[in-house]
Amino acid sequence: AVLSDRSQSTSETRRIHLSFKDVKRALRKLHNHTAAGGSGWRNEFLKTLATCSKDDLGVVAHFFELLVNSELQIYSEYSAVVRVVPLKKKKGGIRPIGVGEPLSRAP
Fold first, then answer.
1. If you ran DSSP here, which 8-state letter would residue 6 be given?
2. What does the pLDDT read at residue 5?
3. How many Å is the Cα radius of gyration of the chain?
4. Under DSSP, is residue 80 helix (H, G, I), strand (E, B) or coil?
5. pTM of the prediction?
6. Cα(105)–Cα(58) distance, rounded to whole angstroms?
7. Is 60 exceeded by the pLDDT of residue 32?
8. Coil, strand or helix: which one is 74?
9. Count of C-beta atoms within a 10 Å radius of residue 107
């Protein structure tokens, strides 16, 4: 499943289905030591979900299905927000670094 598909409504595209194995694999691939998004969540928090039981991962998979199929309206608006961190350049000026929401990087 590709997260860019969630920008289109599910009526225009086929519904994306995720198994507990899909979610477990994707969670394990998340990188550690990344910045937290606007919610304060870090990849390390999400990676702990990979240790859940098969049944619990099924519930997590359902959540991500709702997320990637744009069925969580309140979150879809929130996930579009990017936290901007200003970094000083060596030769002057500022470089804006955008930090997105980790939940939108998972499955």
1. G
2. 45
3. 16
4. coil
5. 0.59
6. 19
7. yes
8. helix
9. 24
The larger pLDDT score, comparing residue 98 to residue 65, is at 65
Alpha helix stretches (DSSP H) within the chain? 20-29, 43-47, 54-68, 73-79
Q: How many CB atoms lie within 10 A of CB 6?
A: 20
Q: Which residue has the higher pLDDT, 12 or 69?
A: 69
Separation between Cα atoms, residue 92 and residue 107, nearest integer Å: 38
In this structure, which amino acid lies at residue 77?
E
Q: Which two tokens stand for residue 49?
A: 């979900």
Q: How far apart are the C-alpha atoms of 16 and 63, rounded to whole Å? A: 12
Please give the C-alpha separations between residue 31 and each of 34, 36, 74, 105, in angstroms, as whole numbers: 7, 12, 26, 10
The two three-digit tokens of residue 47, written as one number: 């990676």
- Measured distance CA(52)–CA(95) in Å, rounded: 39
